Amino acid sequence: MSTSAPTAAGAQVERGELEGRPKPRVSERTRAERKLGWMLCAPAVIVMLAVTAYPILYAIWLSLHRSDLRFPDRTAWIGLDNYITVLTSNLWWKDLFHTMVLTVFSVSIELVLGMLLALAMHRAIMGRGLIRTSALVPYGIVTVVAAFAWRLAFSKADGGFVPVVLNLQQDPLIVTWSTYLVAILAEVWKTTPFMALLLLSGLALVPDDLHEAAKVDGATTWQRFWKITVPLMKPAILVALLFRTLDAFRIFDTVQVLSNGSNRAIESVSQLSYNTLLVRLNLGLGSAVSVLTFLCVLIIAFVYVKFLGANLAQQRGER
Amino acid sequence: MAVDRKRWFGWAGAELIIVVAALFPVLWLLSLSLKTPATVNDGRLIPKTFSFDNYSSIFHQDIFTKALRNSIGIAAISTVIAVVLASMAAYAIARLEFPGKRLILSASLAIAMFPPVSIVGPLYDMWRTLGLYDTWPGLIIPYMTFTLPLAIFTLSAFFREIPWELEQAAQMDGATPAQAFRKVILPLAAPGVFTTAILVFIYAWNDFIFALSLTSTTRAQTVPPAIQSFTGVSQFTAPTGAIAAAAIIVTIPIVVMVLFFQRRIVAGLTAGAVKG
Hints:
The complex is a heterodimer. By secondary structure, chain A is mainly alpha-helical. In chain A, about 70% of the residues lie in helices and about 0% in strands.
């Protein structure tokens, strides 16, 4: 994503040159303002670059080496071998599949529930504050804590009540499909409020008189929702989906807690990366997984922005 | 009248569902945390007997008390630094004209979408070389980095709304620039700064992956990774009750914040539109 930096700056310079305007003399005051602007932004920009841009470049460098902390003296340049190892392994594709299933299902369910919650917050005839407060609890709660709540409810080994109530013979958290269900449930519970709040800000932009006019013309509630609310909210919906898809794709905490112990029913790509890097201490191979995860995130963002037309400028507070 | 009453009951029902769905897992943890080791696996929603043993047991475990101290300290320091740096940048973005402004906003947006797992490996390696592994700064640095975009977006949205002419008006009336800033601008900017601080705090309080990867001992380990290594009331009991008690303790500050500042949190989230 740092690739957008040079192009944007380049475009600006080019535009100035093409217009062929004589360079206006920069006044003392403008120059002082620019200097102050840069100085005020410098600390934040330096920190952000130092902690994200540099490490990702370092990760790329590591991914091209054989670098295993258990055998430090065997470090060597091996080109794309790590990527070949990862991309030809079943584990990567299996984990990518797990991650995609979790992402697609949780984001779609969240969109539907988030929309309902946003409508409830928008139109409630009483108790708006109550809904908002309770909806913010899942948002604020620590993800690990929420995951434990679900694990302690569903796991047979931890004495959860769900297997008792449903009279299950097998622990739901050692079977793949039921672990999916619990993980999706945990994600949906935790992040639907965030989705709802983003949608709510879009909902506030839909003018009431449009609805009134449609009502007079005899449109049903359902028609008004699909023909007025949804088209006008499209930008807000796309941005909410983009944020949540990227976030869901990086899922780590929930899966880590749910699959604690030896039997890992499901594993996400973040898990794979973490395990290779910090459990098996294979920095080269782990970095290759990290870089591939980063590329997936880039692709998702690109698809949303280019093909679906998610307009992020709107979210920059430039409304 | 009958229709109105029907609508009223409809809404009451819907709201009840929302509230129960939102709070149920928390209530389940609360129930578990109050059970005794003998009844913790009984699957009952309301404990048969109430006991605070789990709470007293975790407060006697170094691993929890130190983790709690680390969590509070690290989240607080990250919040202060991130808010100061972001305020400076957001002031410049909202008030000054300078080239590169949009670039900074785009770059922060990119960082907000950045997957943390892509850099834990390099950070682990770098931190061990720099001596930052398993220290407070080792966590504060990534936390403030990942909250800066959110903080800059939220604050610049708030700062744009401030009527800055008031500053000049106060100076015309004879206030010094410092007085004008302190007495006029600061009170107007405070709500935005405060909202941002809450969102940054929630992020740092919530983080798991950095804390799991970049710490190893009670020196800097925060509560989320520490929770898994709890032991029960005695050596031979399952840690379920202890985990639930610790979970409730770390949830309390969040619930309190949400109760008191829900309006601000909502305003901040929708202004920044970046998850914390």
